[in-house]
Amino acid sequence: MSFIATPSSMHFEQALPLQGGASIHHYELAYETYGELNAERSNAVLVCHALNASHHVAGVYADQPRSEGWWDNMIGPGKPVDTNRFFVIGVNNLGSCFGSTGPMHENPDTGRVYGADFPVVTVEDWVDAQARLLDRLGITRLAAVLGGSLGGMQALCWSLRHPERVAHAVVVASAPNLNAENIAFNEVARRAIVTDPDFHGGNFYDHGVVPRRGLRIARMIGHITYLSDDVMNKKFGRQLRDGLELKYSTQDIEFEIESYLRYQGDKFSDYFDANTYLLITRALDYFDPARAHAGNLTRALAASQAKYLLVSFSTDWRFAPARSREIVKSLLENQRRVSYAEIDAPHGHDAFLLDDPRYLGVMRSYFESIAKEIA
Amino acid sequence: MSFIATPSSMHFEQALPLQGGASIHHYELAYETYGELNAERSNAVLVCHALNASHHVAGVYADQPRSEGWWDNMIGPGKPVDTNRFFVIGVNNLGSCFGSTGPMHENPDTGRVYGADFPVVTVEDWVDAQARLLDRLGITRLAAVLGGSLGGMQALCWSLRHPERVAHAVVVASAPNLNAENIAFNEVARRAIVTDPDFHGGNFYDHGVVPRRGLRIARMIGHITYLSDDVMNKKFGRQLRDGLELKYSTQDIEFEIESYLRYQGDKFSDYFDANTYLLITRALDYFDPARAHAGNLTRALAASQAKYLLVSFSTDWRFAPARSREIVKSLLENQRRVSYAEIDAPHGHDAFLLDDPRYLGVMRSYFESIAKEIA
What we know:
The structure is a homodimer.
Chain A: E1 8-12, E2 16-17, E3 23-24, E4 27-34, E5 44-48, E6 75-76, E7 81-82, E8 87-91, H1 123-136, E9 144-148, H2 150-161, E10 168-172, H3 180-194, H4 212-226, H5 229-235, H6 256-271, H7 274-286, H8 297-301, E11 307-313, H9 321-333, E12 338-343, H10 357-374
Parallel strand pairs in A: 5-8, 5-9, 6-7, 9-10, 10-11, 11-12
Antiparallel strand pairs in A: 1-4, 2-3, 4-8
Helix pairs in contact in A: 1-2, 3-4, 3-7, 4-6
């Protein structure tokens, strides 16, 4: 049984300038905190989320026993990131569909729902918005910033954009940028959404519809890339859904894997916002700290002052270990202190959310050492 | 400059019973032949095609200088499969959209276009249809049956279904069946097509439309899986299409890889039939000779009498070398004669269509040895 989490929201009047040239004002950030901020305000840990997650990182909501946060196995009292020692903050990013201001909300400049007009947001923009939230919470410096996948990109970005505010950056199952194949999968998912007639150029809210077909396809593609080949073969293989007889049909479900993917797609299309999907995958595409340094990651990371933990998973082909090693190498070339764990796990990219004891052990040790530093 | 190829077509009155229980009659098979059948009728080579290909395997059509067949680098006078020595037959499979009877043709039982009523066809059905064509051409036994990818599955199937008719089976970049990930990608592509409102349950011909959105998505997914990560990074990387400035847009093309995929998707949707896409990917899903032997491939391959050449490519993650090795292992366990070449090529699954000199060299040597056997 997990602890009770309580969501909060903070309003920001002042315009936040965005990388793309636009700005956003009168916006809300949904967030949660777990544990207590100590008197020195030195035990704060910020958790950044990936595509399909939110500020609800750990704990359960009152009277909703099955509402565990997405990293509840990692964060909580006595857990690897121990909320008896750390003050943990989860924040929902701008453009998301889980509470912070996003494309389904009213644009204060027009009085109408943003829809397609919601500005493109980047990892840098999210980090800046998170920094303002920390300002308001009275937190100058983070004991650690932590994230997996796209969340890891935010953790890395924090250490470059606000180096004086980050003691440790923990970057899990991430990459210094997306490669061509990653962008390609994102692009196919986006095209599926955008070409769904129910998308209406992003203004589907006005039409009372949701581009469900596109969202389903996007989620199915996503799921394939989150899982390893091995785990898919073990979990589903060529197993038929209904007994042993083939149906000989191109449209009926024949194999278990088809049933699983359709189910995941249907579920996702019930709650995820299509514009959010576009925005978040685009933020992934754009993230590339080396870009401003002619592609030289080592020069890009020279700005950092943090200590790092990098973690990758052997069967993750979406953000392969080689991509984490690029970051490790560039940090070492800058004489930064970096720990790196490559976990031999079968679960593909999804491993960063799962209960691998070696993975959780590495995280526990690292956060114990941070706790000692601030004690 | 290649030689001139001339397409032919053969009509079949008699019903062909299909694995799915249905049958098809009054159908056409489009085919081409290159070279001369020798007096002993012992030099025939059948080439089986994969998803997006046809009977037009080699040569060019008269007055169409850029109309090279899909395996023109492999087959022709003086080429690895030398048409000065071999009588090569290319045949378009049932259900395809390149000349043989398919879902866009009239159903003789109803007088209306087949559409969604075209029966599901399997690799076994294609092989049986090909066998009837060979009967009509007066060819009892093949010097070799040859194919890449899905074409390789047909070559393997030939050696099991008509063992007495096959001297050599050449199986390139193929697999004994699709794994869960392969089926998953096929399923997403099919869902994209089937949920396109212009699909009309497969009867879009009656509505004068084409489910272009779905076909585009299907092709984009396909293209990602045909290429290796390496080749995508080399060819496209994170290169922007328009200069150095980002546009900060979720829908405009930003990266070269997006431009490439959209172009491929558009082109494909201009000429490929949506029902054909469903049928052919389903044939891929269903192929599994071990199925009738409780998953035991060695027992499945006990029926074969042919000699084999298997070829795989190191960076092919769609039909990985490990899958070819499964076939090799099972053939060896049956004491069959098998040669196996694992080509260290950067191009992913596409490599089987490309000009890798080691690959073409292996094929040339193997076909030279076949030519000596029949000389």
